[in-house]
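Protocol step 4 of 6.
Sequence for DUF3800 domain-containing protein (Paenimyroides tangerinum) entered exactly as in the expression construct, tag removed. Do not edit the line below.
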Amino acid sequence: MKKYYLFIDESGDHGLVNLDPSFPVFLLCAILTSEDNYFDIRNNINAIKTKFWKGKDVILHSRDIRKCEKEFQILFDLELKKNFYEMINDVISNSKYRILASAINKQKYINTYGKLSNDVYELALSFIIERTIFSLDEIKGVDKELEIVIEKRGKKEDKKLDEHFQRLRARGTTYVSSDRLQEVNLKITFKSKKENSNGLQLSDLIAYPIARYVIDKKRANPAFDILKGKIYNKNGRMYGLKIFP
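Step 5 output, structure tokens:
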């Protein structure tokens, strides 16, 4: 039995009431990696934390890093910032994982389905789970188990999402049967930010540049260029990036 993790984080607001015209998408980003490969990812990220903050307690957060806020005020030192980004980019480029992401264009979604339709978070999660199963299908000759790891958002939100997940397990999705989900012993774990999951933090760092790519594919996006090769590719296209509708 080989264990895989699917670490999921988000970029943008999943609400449909107040739309931000400068950021009109909601994106879920997942990294799929084996337990063995995650051991290396976690250790490499901890080495970066220890180098720059003398310990592993700092939590990497994309927005704070970009704006040099909180613990990341040290990045106002341009030489230090350059070294930090080189090390992070090396982890993103050379670690063994696969990206699966789902973006909801909120205005198009509202125009088609209305503001009171299904939760876009749940919809995006269903898309990611489907394509994760297709990705795991390519690994032959081994029994697999899959643990989804998601950051806690609040008791109400987590309860609702867990109920959605249990329905998925029981009924399957449009393209993946419940039997196939149960074959990988699919389960979900909610972690608080304080638990300092490096898998969730890596997913957070990756989510923003993918969302920016979805919003404007022509805009210069060097961070996306670094991670693009990690997106699940099938038949020569980025099958691991689902944009809906």
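Step 6, annotate. Strands lie at 2-11, 25-34, 98-105, 144-151, 187-191, 241-244.
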